[in-house]
Design a protein that fits this description.
Elements: E1 4-10, E2 14-24, E3 27-36, H1 38-41, E4 43-48, E5 51-55, E6 58-69, E7 75-91, H2 96-100, E8 106-122, E9 126-141, E10 145-164, E11 167-185
Antiparallel strand pairs: 1-2, 2-3, 3-6, 4-5, 5-7, 6-7, 7-8, 8-9, 9-10, 10-11
């Protein structure tokens, strides 16, 4: 069966699309994407004095998988997934936190995202996964203060098992390599913990 189907789902909270099916007798796939719609229908509000959330948090995510069967017990799999979130707020000059730390006054936002890709080989006696993941965040507050963070992680996993005289021998190993990158412009807080 090589039919490919697409499903679209829309509500007041979220919209999504899913495409899946078989490309051939031994190959199949699916792709999915979702995005929040709350910020289109629900507007921000004043949470407390001089603290406003102009719009609700937003997010989107995706995932996909491609499967290639190479015989009855062997397969090659490609997979991806990721998510992205964003939220913003406005600190007024009379906000309690701003009185303690004047550098907070103004627009603030937090953006984060994660993306992951994997290649997997499966066989009766050996499973191998090669993967890469990236996590990013960007935080902004006040007048020009920010913190940017990026983490890249590459992994290699292998697992083998064999049955010997009705006993199963299982061995696994993993290698991981990580890179971190920071960039920031932040002030040291000079106010005390006492409310003025």
């Amino acid at each position: 069966n090589t039919n490919i189907e697409t499903t679209i789902d829309i509500s007041f909270l979220m919209a999504g699309v899913l495409t899946e099916g078989a490309i051939s007798k031994n190959q199949s796939f699916y792709l999915a994407y979702r995005e929040s719609l709350m910020s289109l229908w629900v507007f921000g509000e004043d949470i407390e004095e001089d603290f406003n959330v102009p719009e609700l948090p937003s997010f989107n995510d995706y995932q996909g998988k491609y499967l290639w069967r190479l015989g009855d017990e062997r397969a090659l799999i490609f997979s991806v997934n990721g998510v992205k979130d964003e939220i913003s707020a406005i600190y007024g000059e009379n906000n309690e936190d701003v009185l303690l730390n004047p550098g907070l006054e103004g627009n603030a936002s937090v953006k984060s995202e994660f993306h992951n890709q994997n290649i997997t080989w499966r066989s009766p006696n050996l499973d191998v996964i090669v993967g890469h993941g990236r996590e990013k965040s960007k935080d902004k507050v006040g007048n020009g203060e920010y913190l940017d963070y990026i983490e890249d992680v590459a992994t290699l996993k292998a697992h083998t098992h064999k049955i010997i005289n009705r006993h199963e021998l299982s061995i696994g190993a993993m290698i991981e390599h990580s890179l971190y990158d920071y960039e920031f412009n932040l002030r040291l807080e000079k106010c005390s913990d006492f409310t003025p």
